[in-house]
Amino acid sequence: MRTGLARDLGIGLLCLVALLALPVLFPHPSLRDFLIYVIAYGLLAMSLNLLVGLTGLVSFGHAAYFASGAYVFGLLMQGGAVSIPVAMLAAVGGTALLALVIGAICVRLKEIYFSFITLAFQMFIHSIILTWVELTGGDQGLRGGIPRPPFLGIDLGEAGTLYGFCAVVFVLCLLVMRQVWQSPFGYTLRMIRDNPARANFLGVDVVRMKLGVFVLAGIMASVAGIIMALFVSGAFPEFGFWTTSGEAIFMIMLGGTQVFLGPVIGAFLLQLLNHYVTIWTHHHGLVLGIVILAIVLGLRRGVADYAAAWLAERRAASRPAAVPGPAETPAPAETKAVG
Amino acid sequence: MLSVENLHKSFGGVQATRDVTLDFPAGSLTAIIGPNGAGKTTFFNLISGHVRPDSGRVVFDGADVVGLSSLEIVRRGMARAFQVASLFPSLTVREALTAAVTAHQRRSWSLLSRFPLGQSRARVEELLELLGLAPKADLVSSSLSHGDQKLLDIGLALAMDPKVLLLDEPTAGMGPDERWRMIEKVHHLWQARRLTMVFIEHDMDIVFKYAQAVHVLKYGAVLAQGTPAEIRRNQDVIDAYLGTDHHLAVATGEVPA
Fold this sequence. Notes:
Number of helices of chain B: 10
CATH superfamily of the largest domain in chain B: P-loop containing nucleotide triphosphate hydrolases
Number of strands of chain A: 0
Order of helices and strands of chain A: HHHHHHHHHHHHHH
Shape of chain A: globular
Strand content of chain B: 15-25%
Largest sheet of chain B: 6 strands, mixed
Strand content of chain A: under 5%
Largest sheet of chain A: none
Shape of chain B: globular
Strand order of the largest sheet of chain B: 6-7-8-3-9-10
Number of helices of chain A: 14
Radius of gyration of chain B: 19 Å
Distance between the termini of chain A: 48 Å
Number of strands of chain B: 10
Helix content of chain B: 25-40%
Distance between the termini of chain B: 33 Å
CATH architecture of the largest domain in chain B: 3-Layer(aba) Sandwich
Oligomer: heterodimer
CATH topology of the largest domain in chain B: Rossmann fold
């Protein structure tokens, strides 16, 4: 619907303005760094949530595409033959191809088997990065920095411009994912999440749909990797290690899977926690663990999901009993066979 | 429209379907009855391509569909509703029907447009009216009553605009009054859409009142087939299934509204 699209574009524009205004209003360099981390990891978590929250596919190996985006981009820029936009497109395209090949194998498996094979592929890619030292620099990562030659009058060597560029790319990616989320494709993915067998009986090609969203999620993760590579001016094996995938899952759990922007909120909260907890104690892993436990056991869902449910409840309570209607008895959990 | 010839299927040592040959003419309303474990649901699984038969033919709309995937068979126009309603719990009634209609219209891959598509709207409203679910269109599927869940399950199948609709116990888990309301609705759908309908049912009163033809399965084999009147008099069926207490007398009597 046109109105939905206009609303999303409006909200996207507001987000962009807010992101661009924040560092101007509070001109502290560490705020900009903090926000770029939120942007890169938020995008990674958002892309993973296309699989987890929208399709019900829990991938443990999503950081593979984050790393692939960062490395392909970094290597092309170090090669010096192409401009930044071309290297970005190539990194995204290369990652899409990688996700297509890996996804074609993974999406045939279900549930925990899917999770583990994605993890296995990620470890495979991680060990390629570690062992192919001449190309990737092994455990040292891509050293020597990533050159950022100006293009179309944009000089990403300047910190403020780099931040603005990342913010724009981030919001564009959010808008693309929002479109996916609200499209017939997105609703078909919800069918698959809720009941894949039934979706199949309604003529949905479940395997191909899953592969489609797997590639899309990989593409979005590669953009997050490119932003990270641009920001830290390098690429490191940790980008493709399982802990990076784990962190993205943490963010999703913290923020919520069902509210569209939940994962970004999770990324923000996790970075905030990381930032403040590390100032106060060396045992930040312990503190993070306790916070995650409190949210998982206490709220039983991410913060944004919890807030959305709470708001919906309040709205329902404040609405006068407008629909009197006969009270329906809820369905029995188990239907008895009539014999 | 649909016929099966010499269909066989065994699971390990159990012969779930043995030499079943049945015909379902276009526009017919056929009941399949049989004691528990007679292979009724397996029979549905075989013709819908969910389970592959060991031998035999399933001719649907003029073509042998044995060996085709369930997806291909669905796309040829065979839809199915389930004994335990198989829904999309987190979607609302309207969303679920719209997504199903969208799948039928082959627009599931549409990435650049917004849900719901304009072209699905009329069809969805028509289905909501037909099912009587319009007042509950914006409720989440999992919050519906049992009967409404069963209706929505059938509605999802109807969204496919099927040529053949297989209903696995449409009245399962319902009280007596609710059952009659349900089967009347099913009967109404059949009349309204003129599709070929096959339903599994345990309630003999319902079977004898509504079915045009009755196929009786026992231990995976066809015990009898015929019109309700013929089946009612069939000694094999009485011995094996209906019993001698002549609960059949009820079927000829008054039917609760």
